[in-house]
């Protein structure tokens, strides 16, 4: 444990002096000034406390406070050792800042700024769309910060801005693999760290540019998702759920998404004023982009069914649970395989198709079915909002066999 001394700055002064905490970490030293002040003549250097003198009326209060401070610091060291963390100058200063309520003063280090960044994002507006930062994004930052602290405990270290280099990137990635996180999940954590470092760099708090290396990147593998065919959508549409209003409303909302190509956050807030002359015009919540979508007959029948309104909205989580139930009952049960890299190893799992259906399947189904029908990719992108054709082609779900059939149909049309 580091050696502590409680001192005052100038023993010869005739004026009250601040009482300071001085810690020696080998050759490194932390001098921390408290708010307590005392006349040097009242201070006992050997006992490191105020002398027992009748002339200092608040000696008992000051000595009691110093004992509380010392006990709290000792507890901090003990708990850190129990967690496998070696306390250093930076981590002790951070603890003392927190103990004395100096929350703003520690925002300049990596830990302090990460906490501040998370807090500020709860009210920050995304400049791309003018919306408050999504709670899922904030949750990603929070989870990343938790994992960083767990990593520090495991590696017996304490990160500073200077520590975030390619060696950290490699070791942190290995740690996340060791706790069996998927490749894309690890990529999200690295992306969160990069966002924090960018913000800290912009504010002049971070001078270390190692994170801007091409090797310091958010790794990603193509996600395994599904799309439902038009035949499957028709099967869902025709199924009688009149005895179960919960599933009927979920089914209808899902089909609205399947025939508009909108995200859950958009297709659940369609209003009648957004529709004019058979065209739905809406500003996308995520991007702020304005899109125009023709009304499909299935959408129109649902719209009329609810008297030019939509079924009552539910949370995305409940929606995802209910739509799986819908598809299981309807019989969307063909076998699909999902491969994912987890813990650094590639794993393939077999599912029934209904198990992989979610709110986002609606949007993928819309784009995929239009593409398979021969509708121009560029025109589909104007509705889905994809910026590049490369990104769009990764998004749609068309198998190699389906691509071959598209080419066969193209040749057959040429020969007719």
Description:
- With 416 residues, the chain is an alpha+beta fold.
- It contains 15 helices and 10 strands.
- The strands form 4 sheets. Strands 1-2-3 form a 3-stranded antiparallel beta sheet, with helices on one face. Strands 6-7-8 form a 3-stranded antiparallel beta sheet. Strands 4-5 form a two-stranded antiparallel ribbon.
- A hairpin with a 2-residue loop joins strand 6 and strand 7.
- The longest helix is centred in the N-terminal third of the chain and has 24 residues, at 59-82.
- The protein is elongated.
Number of strands: 10
Strand content: 5-15%
Please state the average pLDDT score. Answer: 87
Number of helices: 15
Summarize the structure in short.
This protein has 15 helices and ten strands. The strands form four sheets. It has a three-stranded antiparallel beta sheet with strand order 1-2-3, with helices on one face. Strands 6-7-8 form a three-stranded antiparallel beta sheet.
